[in-house]
Backbone:
């Protein structure tokens, strides 16, 4: 692990008289702690997973991912996480808008309730969903053992992410900016498209990234309702557990690495999208 | 023509923000709405712009009844105290916004933006983001943005309120000169009487939701219709039974026909002027009288702290009975 920080040439020249790097003692210490912490908690475990997946050679890696049951699980996971993320982007932004811009009875209560899916132990969420949408559903909706159960469970646990990332940014947005747009002749829709969305885009993408990441990694809330039927409702995290239970840790790690890759690509794509939307305003 | 306001009432719950406002603002003039904070002047400006709706009454802009026309269609330029910049857009994009919405041809938009950038002295800053500008520059950008749509009226809500004193003064002069060139009907809200007196052609003093007085700066300053207008437009002191401006008092070390006499008990020098407090000998009016003289006058009159002095209104000044 290298701790060298690239310096802007100007900064280096200006500070050379005092020390060889641009860091003061306290900020150097801070950076050291941050990097150590980050390494211990994130980088080393992730590196281990990658190494483990290649333990028995790249053969295992390839075999695991071409296994039809695994491939189906991965496809289902990514697909449902994507759909849920899109739904969250729309409805999360809408909910955040209502919470910030409108005032109504029960607003404070709703503020608290929004966080419950996030705060609840996932297996409890799973239990709640099972009793509501399972075979004994009191409202007559039974989605147990179908793809829709995965969708519902993901929707439930990822609800707060976009709401919570968009809310503070929306609070900071000056209503006068919208009034300025209106007085210049912009319709509500134009103001939304050219003024509000570009301002909210970074927050929405951050929420979307969290929502998607949570979606592809979800286990507890969907494991009861989905029934984990191979090739039908089995998701990637369940697949990983099965591999581990069967003692095939390299295969489990292979699936994990792929999920890691998917998450990374998603985050990068969302970052690019933010740039595009913010620029277009 | 210009702006005709008739019978405007506005309530926020039980609070009366504006009460039966009738006002006619002539075309091409620079009019100031002056008054203390919370007096209703900003609300009136926002009603003219269509950003707020009145509970009753009508607004006419250049002969067209706009009472029920939404803000988007009023063709009104509005400048906010805190700039309301579109933060993710460059300066040029901000200015172009209103024109792009009107789907003007690209070349025309580009030319017009260049013209406006020049007008507000921001040519070199066209590709910067608002966050890279100073407060004064941001407000000039906001002004250019409002002017871009060639508005029927230009409305400014405390436009210099967030700027520091020096920049505020510069922008004030600049706004006056700009207005003399463009002749667009302009209404600006301020609580700073000096700003209003210096910049505007006519003043509307608003307090507690009502118009106190309408007139030219000279009218209001010299012939205030009420104690409120008198005291709001500048410092006031009490001389005998009357209210008078401290610099309208004639002060002398020699006995003369006087409204009050007493000793100079306080002497404060602020730049070129000297602020005196004279404590009257009259036990009926024991409150100190404030008098302002220039340093040159004080020297010529040979005034010193502790001197016995005689006070009376200067010739031609009509004090207001308290």
Residues:
């Amino acid at each position: 692990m290298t701790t060298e920080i690239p310096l802007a040439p100007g900064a280096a020249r200006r500070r050379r008289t005092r020390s060889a790097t641009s860091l003061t003692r306290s900020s150097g210490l801070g950076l050291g702690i941050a990097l150590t912490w980050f390494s211990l908690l994130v980088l080393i475990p992730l590196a281990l997973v990658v190494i483990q997946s290649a333990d028995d050679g790249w053969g295992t890696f390839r075999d695991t991912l071409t296994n039809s049951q695994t491939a189906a699980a991965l496809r289902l996971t990514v697909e449902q996480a994507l759909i849920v993320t899109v739904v969250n982007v729309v409805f999360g932004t809408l909910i955040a808008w209502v919470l910030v811009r409108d005032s109504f009875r029960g607003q404070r209560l709703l503020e608290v309730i929004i966080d419950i899916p996030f705060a609840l132990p996932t297996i409890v969420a799973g239990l709640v969903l099972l009793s509501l949408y399972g075979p004994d559903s009191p409202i007559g909706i039974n989605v147990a053992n179908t793809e829709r159960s995965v969708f519902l469970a993901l929707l439930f646990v990822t609800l707060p992410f976009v709401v919570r990332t968009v809310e503070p940014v929306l609070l900071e947005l000056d209503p006068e900016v919208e009034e300025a747009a209106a007085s210049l002749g912009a319709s509500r829709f134009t103001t939304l498209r050219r003024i509000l969305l570009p301002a909210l885009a970074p927050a929405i993408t951050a929420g979307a990234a969290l929502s998607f990441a949570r979606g592809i990694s979800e286990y507890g809330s969907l494991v009861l309702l989905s029934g984990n039927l191979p090739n039908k409702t089995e998701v990637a995290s369940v697949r990983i557990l099965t591999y581990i239970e069967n003692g095939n840790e390299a295969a489990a790690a292979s699936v994990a690495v792929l999920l890691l890759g998917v998450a990374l690509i998603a985050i990068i794509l969302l970052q690019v999208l933010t740039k595009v939307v913010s620029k277009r305003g | 023509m210009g702006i005709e306001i008739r019978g405007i009432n506005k309530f926020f719950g039980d609070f009366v923000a504006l009460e039966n406002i009738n006002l006619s603002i002539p075309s091409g003039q620079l009019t100031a709405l002056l008054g203390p904070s919370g007096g209703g002047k900003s609300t009136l400006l926002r009603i003219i712009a269509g950003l707020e709706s009145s509970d009753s009454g009508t607004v006419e802009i250049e002969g067209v009844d706009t009472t029920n026309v939404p803000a988007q269609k009023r063709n009104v330029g509005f400048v906010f105290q805190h700039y309301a910049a579109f933060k993710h857009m460059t300066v040029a994009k901000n200015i172009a916004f209103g024109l792009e919405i009107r789907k003007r041809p690209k070349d025309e938009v580009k030319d017009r933006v260049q013209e406006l950038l020049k007008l507000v002295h921001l040519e070199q800053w066209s590709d910067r983001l608002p966050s890279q500008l100073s407060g004064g520059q941001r407000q000039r950008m906001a002004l250019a943005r409002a002017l871009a749509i060639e508005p029927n009226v230009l409305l400014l809500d405390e436009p210099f309120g967030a700027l520091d004193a020096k920049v505020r003064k510069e922008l004030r002069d600049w706004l006056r000169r700009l207005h003399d060139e463009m002749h667009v009907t302009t209404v600006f809200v301020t609580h700073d009487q000096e700003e209003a007196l210096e910049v505007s052609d006519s003043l509307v003093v608003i307090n507690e939701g009502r118009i106190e007085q309408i007139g030219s700066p000279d009218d209001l300053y010299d012939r205030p219709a009420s104690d409120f207008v008198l005291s709001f437009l500048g410092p006031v002191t009490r001389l005998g039974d009357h209210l008078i401006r401290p610099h309208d008092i004639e002060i002398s070390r020699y006995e003369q026909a006087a409204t009050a006499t007493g000793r100079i008990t306080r002497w404060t020098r602020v730049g070129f002027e000297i602020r005196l407090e004279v404590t009257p000998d009259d036990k009926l009016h024991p409150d100190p009288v404030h008098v302002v003289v220039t340093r040159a006058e004080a020297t010529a009159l040979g005034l010193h702290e502790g001197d016995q002095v005689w006070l009376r209104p200067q010739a031609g000044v009509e004090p207001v009975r308290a």
